[in-house]
Structures are given as C-alpha cells and as structure tokens.
C-alpha cells in the first residue's frame, strides 16, 4: 500500500501520514518529535503560528545527532503567517522559521490562510497570532499575487523545495493558477467526515495538486479550546465505531484510513504514545467502498476552523 504521494513539479515523495504540531506544547515538543521519529514518523507539519518551531527543531536535531535519521529522510512543512504577506516580509518570515527549526530549507512551505493582516515585527510579538497589539484584527490590502510571487522566489532560492496553499477554496485556487509561474503543489485544508469537501478534492486531483487533510478527527481537536461547536465526537459515532470494531482498529485509525482511501495525506497529532504508533499504521489496512461511503454520509458541512468566527470581515469560505 502506498505510503507517499509524488508531487507534480519536483517529483518529491511526500509521506501520506505525518505528525501535526498544532497545539503541541513547547515543554513537550522536542521529546514528542524525537519519539515520533523513533517510531517511524518522517513528516512533521509545523507553522510559525504554532509557536513551537524552535522546540520541534531541537527534537529533529537530536534525532539526527543520534543517528536515527538524516535530514533528507525527513519532510518538514512550515507556513507563512497572515502578518507576513507583503513582498518585503515573505522571505524574512521563511528564514526566521528556518532559523528556529535549525534548517537550511523546508520541504514544503504553505501560505497559512489567504488573509493578510497587519505586520508585527517578531521582536515585538511572536507568534503574532490574529490580533494586533491593541487586541483587534487589522486586515491590510496585500494582493495575493504579490505574496505568491515571493513564495515562488523561495522555491527559486531553495529555501522551500515545494510551495503550496492552505485554507483555500476552488475559486481562489483557480485565480492563483491564472498567474502562477510555479503552481501550488499542495493544498492543506480541513477535511473530516463532518466536512467532506468532495468537489474540492476532485478539483485538486484534476489540477494535480496533492491534498493534506487536517483535523481528521473532526471536533476532537477543538474540544480543549472550546471550539467544537457542540458536534458529537466522531470517535463515538456509531458508523465509525461499528467499522472500527469490525476491523479490530481504533476509531482514529478508521478516520485516518477514510482520508487515505481518497488519496489524501493526513497529519494527526497525539500526546499518547500508543495512539501515536497506531496512527502511523493507518496505511496498512483498507476500507471497502461501502465503508468509505457510509462514513462520508456523515457530512453536515461543519467547518471548525473558520476565520469568520473571529471577525465577520474574514469570511473566506462564504
């Protein structure tokens, strides 16, 4: 069974199951990354906004020093935050993240959101998050073509081997394709059984853009930040638990396999070592088409990560 997806422009092979670093605490991040590498994880999905890139890099450095892996064995993804979209900030932001990781290049660098907000110097506030120093969100007028042109230069300079988008919809991707010299290689978006996004998946397949699905467990990752919107846990949903029991797998493994069956890459996070190992084995079994359809039928269009919940002016998914 496939464990990687080959990217269209470079031919680079991106692991289908990676480890997501969102909400991994600074205190545990280095050890978590090191132990994940020890268990076989090779892709780590980070971002400037996560605030733990330095610690993640320490885990990587220790694993390389101990001979567990070489740098070229790993796939490190980071993301350009919303405050750095202007042409004078893109390369500086990428280099800032590379320095935190202790790396010379990213395997993949994504634009985190197609939203530009007021710049805050990293020596003033880092990560800058959504809010300005006055506690308010300040959108600014930076055309995305300006940002993407600078992203292409990162690829030209070897700072990012591959570049892509995150949290973008079809019409936005269509527009980027009109002017892109280097097309987006990867789209990272929220996909789970409550938000299946089949038309977007099909569109990306047509264009040859690989998709990484985040929040594969649906509401589960949002409970601790009280952003699950009252949705029932997919881990407890009858459709998921019945298939899990039949297969002798955990609900988490079933949800990850559901995405993998559609050709999507996944980036689950777990603080539990046993589950961390189990998640990685999701490439080692299959679901029937009937099982995939049954899980997909749970779709209710529930988007858990939506900037409009922060500010009505940021309705990028409207």
Fold and architecture overview:
- Helix content is 34%, strand content 12%.
- The chain is of the alpha/beta class.
- Strand 6 (108-111), helix 4 (144-156) and strand 7 form a beta-alpha-beta unit.
- The model has no long low-confidence stretch (mean pLDDT 97).
Summary?
The chain is α/β, with parallel strands linked by helices. About 35% of the residues lie in helices and about 10% in strands.
List keywords for this structure.
two-stranded antiparallel ribbon, alpha/beta, single chain, 318 residues, 8-stranded parallel β-sheet
In order across it, which strands form the biggest sheet?
3-4-5-6-7-8-9-10
Portion in beta strands:
5-15%
- Listing every helix as H and every strand as E from the N terminus to the C terminus, the arrangement reads EEEHEHEHEHEHEHEHHEHH
Quote the distance from N terminus to C terminus. Answer: 37 Å
Describe the largest sheet. Answer: 8 strands, parallel
Alpha-beta content class: alpha/beta
Mean of pLDDT: 97
Number of helices: 10
Spans of 5+ residues with little confidence (pLDDT < 50)?
Answer: none
Radius of gyration, rounded?
19 Å
Shape: globular
Helical residue percent band: 25-40%
- The total beta strand count reads 10
């Amino acid at each position: 069974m496939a464990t990687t997806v080959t990217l269209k422009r470079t031919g680079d092979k991106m692991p289908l199951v990676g480890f997501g670093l969102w909400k991994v605490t600074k205190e545990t991040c280095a050890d978590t990354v090191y132990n994940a590498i020890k268990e076989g994880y090779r892709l780590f999905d980070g971002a400037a906004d996560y605030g733990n890139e330095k610690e993640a890099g320490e885990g990587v450095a220790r694993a390389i020093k101990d001979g567990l892996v070489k740098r070229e064995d790993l796939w490190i993804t980071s993301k350009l935050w919303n405050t750095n979209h202007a042409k004078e900030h893109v390369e500086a932001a990428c280099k800032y993240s590379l320095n935190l990781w202790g790396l010379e290049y990213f395997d993949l660098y994504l634009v985190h959101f197609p939203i530009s907000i007021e710049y805050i110097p990293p020596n003033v506030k880092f990560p800058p998050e959504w809010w300005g120093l006055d506690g308010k969100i300040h959108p600014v007028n930076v055309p995305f073509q300006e940002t993407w042109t600078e992203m292409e230069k990162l690829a030209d300079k070897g700072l990012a081997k591959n570049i892509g988008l995150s949290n973008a919809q079809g019409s936005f991707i269509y527009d980027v394709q009109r002017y892109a010299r280097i097309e987006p290689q990867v789209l990272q978006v929220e996909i789970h059984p409550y938000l299946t996004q089949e038309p977007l998946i099909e569109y990306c397949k047509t264009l040859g853009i690989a998709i990484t699905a985040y929040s594969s467990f649906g509401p589960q990752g949002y409970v601790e930040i009280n952003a699950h919107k009252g949705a029932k846990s997919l881990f407890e949903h009858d459709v998921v638990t019945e298939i899990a029991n039949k297969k002798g797998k955990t609900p988490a493994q079933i949800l990850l396999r559901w995405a993998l069956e559609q050709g999507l890459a996944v980036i689950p996070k777990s603080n539990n070592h046993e589950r961390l190992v189990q998640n990685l084995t999701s490439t080692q079994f299959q679901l029937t088409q009937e099982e995939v359809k049954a899980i997909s039928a749970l779709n209710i269009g529930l988007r858990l990560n939506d900037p409009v919940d922060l500010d009505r002016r940021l309705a990028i998914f409207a």
